Amino acid sequence: MPAGRMTLFPSWVRSLAPLVGADLRRRYAGSLLGGAWAVLAPVLEAATYGVVFGWVLGASASRGLPYAVLIASGLFPWIAFREAVEGCATLLPDNRWIRRSRVPLDLLVAKLVVTASVRAAIGLLVVLGFALATGRRPGAAGWLLPPVAFVLQAIGTFGVGRLVAPVAALAPDLRPTLVSALTLLTFASPILYPESAARGWLRTVLLCNPFTHLLRLYRTPAEPLAGAGLLGSLAVATSAALAMAALGGWVRERAWWRARDLL
């Protein structure tokens, strides 16, 4: 690259796609269905939740949204977030060779985020497909907001990953604590139940949870937002993603070298 030339993305971005492809192939190597498991695994998990909560326990969705669509549109993005963050918590201990290489930490974090985002993309397609199949007309904003939510989630998750990776190497007790916290957040987000089912203090918790507003954007084609509700959820989701990106960058700059010396 010529001296003084500015680029929009870091140089490691060109290595991201091959790494993600290799990771997906390795993950499903030897299985009969191969890469199809990237789609089938979350579908089967969503179906399990749908049967248990929707049929056995009699849970219902809101405003005519089928419970299966509610589950898919919430669970798939959440699985993507959780998989990436938990992967980042063990990233440095599992890749001790990085201490002696010039491979940037950010590339490994981005690989985990993009690989996990395949599941979030499935949730996005489920909502868009349902809206098309049922003839819903959410307007231009309704069709655009799910991809916006997808990008915001990737940005925020990348920031969280940059924070978690070095901190978890410095404080190993963070890893089991993180698993428990993410399990708690699963039920503190409208993933397995409609937002309308929350009452009292739980309603307040949901409104303070940025993931609630992200899921509103994902579900816009099926459950349209309008006016202040749309702008408010977009503002909260965007602010949270950018804040996580900034905080992750700040922590990474200050903790990376100490974490690397412990490997």
Give a concise summary.
With 263 residues, the chain is mainly alpha-helical. Helix content is 71%, strand content 0%. The protein has helices at 16-27, 37-56, 67-89, 91-94, 105-133, 139-170, 174-187, 200-208, 210-218, 227-261.
Characteristics of this structure?
0% strand; 71% helix; mainly alpha; globular; 10 helices; 263 residues
What do these coordinates show?
- It is a single chain.
- By secondary structure, the protein is mainly alpha-helical.
- It has one domain.
- It is 71% helix and 0% strand.
- The protein is built from 10 helices and no strands.
- The longest helix has 35 residues, at 227-261.
- The two termini are 32 Å apart.
- Residues 1-6 have low confidence and may be disordered.
How many domain regions?
1
Total helices: the number is 10
Tell me about the biggest sheet? none
Low-confidence stretches: 1-6
Number of strands: 0
Derived structural class = mainly alpha
Over the alpha carbons, how many angstroms does the gyration radius reach?
19 Å
Helix content: over 70%
Q: How would you spell out the order of helices and strands? A: HHHHHHHHHH
User: Hey, roughly how much beta strand do the residues contain?
Assistant: under 5%
Could you outline the blueprint of secondary structure elements for this entry?
Blueprint: H1 16-27, H2 37-56, H3 67-89, H4 91-94, H5 105-133, H6 139-170, H7 174-187, H8 200-208, H9 210-218, H10 227-261
